Amino acid sequence: MIVLAIDGALGSFSAAVSGDGRVAAARCESGSVALERGLGIVEAVLAEARVAPRQIERLAVGIGPGGFTGLRIALAYAKSLAAAWQRPLVPVDSFDLLEWGGAFDRVLAVVVGRPGVISARYRGVPPTRRASGRIDEVLDALVPSVEGPLAVVGAPEDVLHALAERDIIVRPVNPAVIPAAAAAALAASSRVPPKSLHEVVADYGELPAATPPKFSGL
Q1: Alpha-carbon span 107 to 103, nearest angstrom
Q2: Could you tell me if 114 and 189 lie in one domain?
Q3: Residue 210: its pLDDT value, please?
């Protein structure tokens, strides 16, 4: 199965093509390049993989949580291409992208939002838990205490320090498959696509930048 995948949620814009369970081509550019360079990156990946649009059997897209602007643009591109080519679109969340290809007994996957704000998912003793908000609040909700080493993927230094302050033994892990779009392409080949593109929606995860004040009635 040939899959074209796009991700813009994890701090860069990436595109990848996979076929027969391997990545045929992938490109990634850091920074706010999705709007100006995104479609060019997709075109370059298809050319490198020597794949024409008619050969693509499905598309995949990272749905977040992650950066607001990059996520929205990547999702718009993916939906537009899926609609134009009449192909199914598979959503893959950022936590799965970070963990894809790794083997963990328990793991904390962390996506950075605004400074001091994260979204995270803990997988270990069931059930799987996730939370979004300020670092201390998220860690208190997900991993108030953990015995033994905890694999942590995607976490910046301030999150690792906060875990260490809780006397948690941290084992930092880099994503096994990069860029994110490559993980999305591999993941999507074995998943059942939604019946409608309208079911594919963004997961922004983090707290809003501001909370509107509450006014009492006059």
Answers
A1: 9
A2: no
A3: 46
